[in-house]
Design brief:
Elements (H helix, E strand, L loop, with lengths): L3 E4 L2 E5 L10 E4 L2 H9 L6 H15 L3 H8 L6 H11 L4 H26 L5 E5 L14 H10 L3 E7 L6 H13 L3 E4 L4 H6 L5 E4 L3 E3 L4 E4 L2 H11 L3 E4 L5 E2 L16 H4 E2 L2 E2 L12 E4 L6 E3 L4 E2 L2
Parallel strand pairs: 4-5, 4-7, 5-6, 7-10, 8-11, 10-15
Antiparallel strand pairs: 1-2, 2-3, 8-9, 9-14, 12-13, 15-16
Helix pairs in contact: 1-3, 2-3, 2-4, 2-5, 4-5, 5-6
Length: 307
């Protein structure tokens, strides 16, 4: 399965808003359609957004206003802008976009092998937040790619997947991917993660990243910072798994990362079912920043960084 690809002159991507109930491929033929798909999270995940950005430049066919709209569609994830910039600077944007796609596939496999080699032990119990599998990339994924490699090696005992409010990307997407790979797993409420870490029931925490600052501070889905604090207290290693393209050397630290607030509706309702009274307003930061001193190691396709 590929999350995103170029097929017959257009982008085809898995509509992640329809999972786990339906597996639907969405055909995207214009930049405006792609921007809408990105904003409503039909396609999401840092590596997948990098590929989407590059392929979107090919769709734009020289329309620089459309390219600018695409680049600004998600402010926190650096890969989107990176993919747009890579393709925009190329003489042949489509060829560059397809190269980025192929490099992402190879990078995810390399991250899986490097990350699995870094974690010692057998029958490992892994905790993760949000969705970092193939749906967040082109194939296999980042942090969940490490989990898949551990499972293939026979070293995985169980995965504890946080539900990941407000859009339940762990409950909807990560459990779907773990089920497809046949990996043992249980779903965990977000607020229960640090407690389970404190009880000694977890061997390692694996997360992805949407932007890694020059000093190693890492922006990832909201809830990551709480897991990092819990892991530090419990003495559990905390690993960030992300491609080199997610490292933003131009951002000195997490203090300079723009955090996207996605508005009230995602908090007060789930799939159209209202949870809060009419008129309730909400704060909805989509990401948080984990300081580098809480991170055991950052695993990329080419190296292990210990901030």
């Amino acid at each position: 399965m590929r999350t995103i690809d170029w097929v017959d002159g257009a982008i085809e991507l898995v509509d992640q808003t329809r999972l786990p109930d339906e597996y639907v491929l969405l055909r995207v033929e214009t930049v405006d359609e792609l921007v809408e798909a990105i904003r409503r999270l039909a396609v999401r995940g840092a590596p997948a957004l990098g590929v989407a950005g590059a392929l979107g430049v090919a769709l734009a066919r020289g329309d620089q206003e459309a390219v600018a709209r695409l680049r600004a569609a998600r402010p926190t994830a650096v890969n989107l802008a990176w993919g747009v910039d890579q393709a925009s600077a190329a003489a042949d944007p489509l060829a560059t976009a397809l190269r980025i796609r192929d490099e992402d596939i190879a990078a995810c496999r390399a991250m899986g092998e490097r990350g699995a080699g870094l974690i010692e032990g057998e029958r490992l119990r892994i905790m993760t937040v949000c969705n970092t599998g193939g749906l967040a990339a082109v194939e296999r994924g980042t942090a969940l790619g490490v989990v898949q490699t551990l499972h293939e090696q026979g070293r995985l005992a169980e995965v504890y997947a946080l539900e990941t409010r407000p859009l339940l990307q762990g409950a909807r997407l990560t459990t779907w991917e773990l089920g497809r790979m046949g990996a043992p797993h249980r779903l965990v409420a977000d607020s229960a993660g640090p407690y389970l870490l404190a009880r000694g029931g977890v061997d390692a925490v694996l997360i992805g990243a949407d932007r890694i600052a020059a000093n190693g501070d890492t922006a990832n889905k909201i809830g990551s910072y709480a897991l990092a604090l819990g892991a530090e207290r419990a003495g559990v290693p905390f690993y960030v798994v992300a491609p080199e393209s997610t490292i933003d050397a131009a951002t000195p630290s997490g203090d300079y990362i723009e955090i996207e607030d996605r508005g009230t509706e995602e908090i007060i309702a789930i799939r159209g079912v209202r949870l809060a009274p009419e008129g309730t307003q909400a704060l909805n930061p989509a990401f948080d920043v984990t300081p580098h001193d809480l991170i055991t190691a950052i695993v990329t396709e080419s190296r292990v960084i210990r901030p």
